[in-house]
């Protein structure tokens, strides 16, 4: 029987990348280190360390300086962090742009957000973001040349083969936007990613769930999507279209969905449908923040809408938990301030439809990062692509 | 903001394991190699290679012999494969035990299966398997000491924290069985795993889908479960309970399920429910193999039962594809011989409920490994736990 290769752990480029990440991780955890000590700490040969350090110097990630060690001349390797290298995260929503600037040791040193009008084009939004980027770097006292890259979140699926926003995005204006277009706008290296994926990465990097290896982040907003962290890293599947849970069928003969099907989760539990129902019931325009306000004020109609939505989300979460058995499920998005008012019906749905042993061993919580999650995730994405992982505080 | 560790890629034990796997992979692909050449091929230092080779010699995985290289004395390291090391896979079903013996270069050199009566205890089944193991090794001319380990598949969830079969198993007699009990029965190292997980591993190791990094294997049998291969490796989630898709709700007010819920996928699409419906309709006892025979003979009742079941499976597969965006979905289990008769309604369900771009880019196929998949997966599991991955043929 013929045997074909699995992803060969010994392939040369995978090996190089893995060796590079080892060296960077070692520098993050140990601080400036001689080449000989890096070799000792990682098990790599001196020649391998020396070659990779050369590449990292060229990429501007580390610098070297002469020193002495046990009386002999040696090369001291330092992360450029000490020179102020930073990572930027930018999150685009339907009505906002948020930016976060973080150092290579995962400290946030700059943060801003602006509201933008509904229905702006992608080009207009990118202009606003480019200005926000310039002013935030200026305020934080950071040179543009110190930016390792920009992690950009958009509320839509990204085809990882081409780096393009594809059909299904909450902002139709963004369909067709490529990573190259965003790079031209920012004049910096860009990583383009779905917003729920960035939320998941942020939750597994910052806050109380940092370090949890298996996390599902559910963003309940105008659309509903999931971000997956498996074995400590973002999971993107075959072509980057993971977490498309908004179109799970809930009611066979329910409302028509923007995807062409009917009765999808989004027709029952998105903030868009909640706004639609409450605007009719109250006979005046309602916005997302009003949903939170009405529920917290005890409005029975708003409570019912959120309760039904939460139960449907919980039913979908049950199917997810049965399939991938996560350690922690985190609910985020603009309704996160509702806390138990939203989490309680979600928990009922999970308990009703998941396998009992999975219910017992899965942690279900509300996001503590709130609306900052996606931009934080963007900043983390850049750092992790540079092989810089968070270390013990 | 405090930063806590993600799974630190630089942690010492993870590094050691990763270095060990590099060295074993190198030996599998290059054959016997000197320690100096292993260091060159892997980028590891001579000291690291020497230490790891010592450990591998102690574990009986490799042997060393003196040689010369460029006129200098050197240590030649060889995989014990040349001495006939093997891996064993054993699959327990409701009515069968199957065994497969494979070499470290993934060649099958022994295979047997026996039918066993319904309702046997786990202890009885283990006795039968232990005898089968002894006779199969004898026929293949393999010493017991050459067996690296036994990968054992059972149709039930395994708690990976304790290595115990837990509630929800198709064979209730197996609940509470531990990896330790199986090891005592076989007197060999044992890896205990859910059968669908082993099917997934087999499909990504042997046959036309070998090397596919993201695979979902769906086993449709007395129960319905999924096995997941993510990034080329089995994905086990938080405590090993992945792929529990048999209890996805399909009909809100459907039949009561063995899990305590009602209307689950298994109440609509398992072979158990097909057998139940066809036995009533035909007024005589029907077995799994009869379902295949009746459908292929054109019996309209059997065709209808399989078609409805397939569509429900397809709907569940759509939710899976929307969530984890696999490259390939493979349908296995005892109905695999039905081919298009089962695959066609599954495809209709997938197309009806999955996001269009995911439908377009996901491959949906029938297993070509058939009833051998789980035992093949068991053998592959042992080899991969020893760091031995398949290479180019």
TrEMBL record, chains A, B:
Recorded family membership: Belongs to the ROK (NagC/XylR) family.
The keyword Kinase appears for this protein: yes
Entry superkingdom: Bacteria
The record ties this protein, via PANTHER family, to: GLUCOKINASE (PTHR18964:SF173), ROK (REPRESSOR, ORF, KINASE) FAMILY (PTHR18964)
Q: Which GO terms describe its molecular function?
A: DNA-binding transcription factor activity; kinase activity
Per UniProt, residues of the HTH marR-type domain are 22-72
InterPro entries reported for this sequence: ArsR-like_HTH (IPR011991), ATPase_NBD (IPR043129), HTH_MarR-typ (IPR000835), ROK (IPR000600), ROK_cs (IPR049874), WH-like_DNA-bd_sf (IPR036388), WH_DNA-bd_sf (IPR036390)
- Quote the Pfam families the UniProt record gives: MarR_2, ROK
The keyword Isomerase appears for this protein: no
What is the protein's name according to its record?
A: ROK family transcriptional regulator
**Classification via SUPFAM superfamilies:** Actin-like ATPase domain, Winged helix' DNA-binding domain
What UniProt keywords apply to this chain's record, in alphabetical order? Kinase, Transferase
> What lineage, starting at the top, does this entry show?
Bacteria, Bacillati, Actinomycetota, Actinomycetes, Micrococcales
